[in-house]
Amino acid sequence: MERLGGKQQFPYLMDPNTGEALYESAAIIDYLYQQYGGRPAPKSWQLRLRTAAAVAASAPRGSHGIRCLDSQAPKKPLELYSFEASPFARLVRERLTELQLPYLLRQCGRDQWQDWVLPIMRKRLDMDYAPSQRNRVDLMARAGRIAVPYLVDPNTGKELFESEAILDYLDQTYGG
After folding, report:
1. In this structure, are strands 12-14 and 21-23 parallel, antiparallel, or unpaired?
2. How far apart are CA 33 and CA 75, in angstroms?
3. Would you call 35 helix, strand, or coil by DSSP?
4. Alpha carbon distance 72, 77 (integer Å)
């Protein structure tokens, strides 16, 4: 961290697309909205409210996602299909962080009402479901359904749904 940015401070964003490197969450958020969203970031009170909600959600998790565990680094980054509010995906993100494993996050946010219907209910209702969000489209093509978390390991060819199976896989494959 010191070699890259000059100090040990987090968060730190380094955008390889533009060469931009930033500390401070507010500056990072402003940059991301401007650079990739094409609009200004939400007002500071909205961000503080979101931060408070995130802290409240993290409190029951204790030290999960904070501590580092011994691990074996993969040659290629793993891929995780996820969305921020999924409690099941959160468990996987925490373990990836603890094991210090590099990964690409494929954010599968919901952008239409059908995305809110659980996959098992879509099947029971025989819904004509076609995702529109790009990572959901990719996940559907890749796995035949939309459910998160979904882990892709290009190092072993393994692809998994279900947080418990993914956590076991990560521990057995990369855990120290």
Report:
1. antiparallel
2. 31
3. helix
4. 12
> Which SS3 state, helix, strand or coil, does residue 121 take?
helix
65-95 CB burial, b ≥16 within 10 A, e <16: eeeeeebeebeebbbbbbbeebeebbbbbbb
Q: Is 27 buried (19+), middle (13-18) or exposed (0-12) by CB count in 10 A?
A: middle
Q: How many contiguous H segments (helices) and E segments (strands) does the chain have?
A: 7, 6
Structure tokens at 1: 């961290």
Strand partners, 160: 151
Whole-angstrom Cα distance, residue 151 to residue 167? 10
pLDDT digits (tens, 9 = 90+) for 94-148: 999 999 999 999 999 898 999 888 878 888 999 888 999 999 999 999 999 899 9
d(CA 123, CA 134): 21
Tokens of 127: 């819904």
Note whether 65 and 93 are within 8 A (CB): yes
Q: Which one, of 99, 102, 134, 136, lies nearest residue 117 by Cα?
A: 136
